[in-house]
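Need tokens for this chain, all 178 residues.
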Amino acid sequence: MFVFALPLGLAATRNATAGVRDLSGALEFAQVPIVLTVLVMVGWNVYMVQAAKRLRTLMQLLDEVDRYSAVIQAVDVLDRLDAVGHRSLKARDRGEILQALRVTRDTLVSGLRTEKVLRQSRGLLTRHADLIHSLETNLVALRALEVNHQASEYGQLLHEALQISQRVQQEVGRIADL
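Here are the structure tokens for all 178 residues:
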């Protein structure tokens, strides 16, 4: 990385008055590539830490797959020892071990497939959470509009009742005048 940053340091110090012949010019020349190299290295390490966090579950599952492979190899060694006449496993124990290995294999395959689906749809899950939040916000707004609409309907009914009351008073006043 430092080699790629050297031309940038040279370009930055090209018009410097001291040049690279004395110590201050040499320090000014070296400063740009060193700073650039450090920044790129820090950025790369931050990126790698983030990538490792995203893949931690996958790494744990792959460790379990390695352990499973080691158990399979151990059973194979025991089978080969049994073939040469050294009885180390009973037939009943071997059957139980093979059944447990089948269940373990199915569980590992299921776990790996689940992790793959979750990893591929990580953005979808984030968008899903945003969508739910947006729906909740919109639902609250709709409820507020509904309350406002009910209040305006109530206001209209009250206004109509007031108009009816005024008409009745006018009619009562006309009747009283007669």
